[in-house]
Design a protein that fits this description.
- This protein is an alpha/beta fold.
- It is 27% helix and 18% strand.
- Helix 1 (4-12) runs parallel beside helix 7 (195-202) and helix 7 packs parallel to helix 9.
- The longest helix is centred in the N-terminal third of the chain and has 14 residues, at 37-50.
- It is globular, with a radius of gyration of 18 Å.
């Protein structure tokens, strides 16, 4: 794990907020699963709300199941890349299932291609992402990858509500709070050692509260909420601002349905705009989860949700990114967008 000195280095080069959002609608493609009627509707709605160019709407055919095989996935990813315009840097995946490909999450498999180097048998490291804390704004041009995010929800209506929150967040420069919770769950509280440095480095930019608690309750200004628990209580008692990011470090948060641990969809149901969870047992490697300091830093200086969130995870192969990719609360968009 990174030491305190390394974390300080990562947060030392802080810049003022950007004026314009880095990612434009023309740089993002919407991927529709033709086997899923809800995917078509989600894709249509997202294109309308975000003014995505028609040529950036791409169709593939995946089974509507939690897990897809490596063979089927590889065929469809090849079809996806053949159809993708050269200027596209990111993908929005317009479905809730599948969310896993073999031993990888669907978002990482789309981004990197299926590669077992991004998987782990037991408690082991996985391949590091070249996009981790990367300063460029064109990952395909620079690194040959297109980071992806799932437009997922517990229902089509919830997905549309999440999209609306992302759109509403743009240029809002919210006066919300980052809540960093240190819990009694020692196995899942492994990010808490970072919190004092994060507050020290970023508190001039927004309010940051460090709390020793297993749950946050009745707060009305939640912009960031990071914790470590298998299940998080009282999530619905809080008000999440448009563009809010929230996640809980646990083993199965990215298993969207059917696990005893809390699904990341619960955060979105409660009003968050983005979340993250693993689909395969990761063990308590902090590198397999978002680094809250990097997320907060990059998001609050104008990067979009997909940029700031993806850049915060060093080993993302087993992790699922869910949310509205273009949400940019600390940036404004050109009128043409």
């Amino acid at each position: 794990m990174c030491g305190l000195r390394q974390l300080c280095v990562l947060l030392s080069g802080l810049l003022p907020a950007a004026v314009l959002a880095a990612v434009s609608p023309s740089q993002l493609a919407i991927v529709i699963n033709t086997n899923d009627p809800d995917s078509r509707e989600t894709g249509r709605y997202y294109r309308q709300q975000r003014h995505i160019p028609e040529q950036n709407i791409i169709e593939i055919a995946l089974p509507v199941t939690a897990v897809v095989s490596e063979q089927v996935f590889n065929q469809q990813r090849q079809a996806l890349y053949r159809q993708t315009p050269a200027n596209v840097q990111f993908y929005a995946l317009a479905w809730t299932q599948p969310y896993r490909v073999g031993c990888m999450s669907i978002t990482s498999a789309i981004t990197f291609g299926f590669d077992k180097a991004y998987c782990a048998k037991g408690c082991n490291a996985t391949r590091r992402s070249a996009y981790y804390n990367f300063d460029g704004d064109a990952p395909y041009d620079s690194l040959g990858i297109r980071p992806s995010m799932l437009l997922a929800g517990s229902s089509p209506a919830q997905v549309e509500a999440m999209i609306d929150r992302g759109v509403k967040s743009d240029g809002s420069f919210p006066g919300g709070t980052a809540y960093l919770l240190s819990t009694t769950d020692k196995a899942r509280n492994v990010r808490a050692w970072r919190y004092p440095v994060i507050r020290q480095r970023l508190s001039s930019r927004l309010k940051i509260q460090l709390l020793e608690a297993d749950a946050l309750k009745d707060k009305h200004d939640v912009l960031f909420y990071f914790t470590g628990r298998a299940r998080v209580q009282a999530v619905q008692s809080n008000r999440f601002l448009p563009g809010a990011i929230a996640d809980h470090l646990t083993s199965w948060g990215g298993v969207l349905f059917g696990k005893k641990q809390m699904s990341v969809l619960k955060w979105l149901d409660a009003g968050a705009t983005g979340s993250y969870g693993t689909v395969i047992e990761p063990c308590a490697f902090t590198q397999k989860f978002p680094n809250p300091g990097i997320v907060i830093d990059r998001y609050t200086r104008g990067e979009s949700l997909i940029e700031a969130y993806w850049k915060s995870v060093a080993w993302p192969g087993q992790g699922l990114f869910v949310g509205e990719p273009l949400a940019s609360p600390f940036a404004t968009r050109r009128q043409s967008e």
